Amino acid sequence: MNLNPRIGLTFDGDCEAAFKFYERCLNGKIEFMLRWGESPIADDAPAEWREKILHARLIIGDTELLGGDVRPYESPRGFSLLISPNDAAEAERIFHALAENGTVLMPLQETFWSPRFGCVRDRFGISWTINYEGAAKT
Q: pLDDT tens across 34-89, in order?
């Protein structure tokens, strides 16, 4: 058996802004974005939600990130998305981009297992862990 979790993030009306932000920060590509008002269930959406995103798909490398604006909305908690950059400079770039208008939970720093490790909650309330797996200094 294989387990391949598909990550689906929920938002309270700002999925489009979040996915455009992630596309830029993570060098991804938005492959699909469907608005509530364009969907077969458009009549079920409140008028003010017709322009909100029912379903979005962002491709980052070999990973698919899904998301949408949902009702009722609950703030995400109890998880973080792990990014393992290929080098320390990319770890720095990604961390600082995600931290823009967000909250640094643990500054990006050297640890005993990683030359660059840090945690941030972005401006959309999504938690990220950056872990560059290069050799740490001993």
A: 999 999 999 988 899 999 999 999 999 988 999 999 988 888 888 999 999 999 99
Is pTM beyond 0.85? Reply is yes
Nearest Cα residue to 126 out of 34, 26, 10, 38: 10
Question: 12-49, pLDDT tens digit by residue?
Answer: 999 999 999 999 999 999 999 999 999 999 998 889 99
Which option is the CATH number for 81-132: 3.40.50.970, 3.40.50.410, 3.30.720.110, 2.120.10.80? 3.30.720.110
Residues 10/68, Cβ–Cβ less than 8 Å:
yes
Tokens of 67: 């998301």
7-69 classified as CATH 3.30.720.100: yes
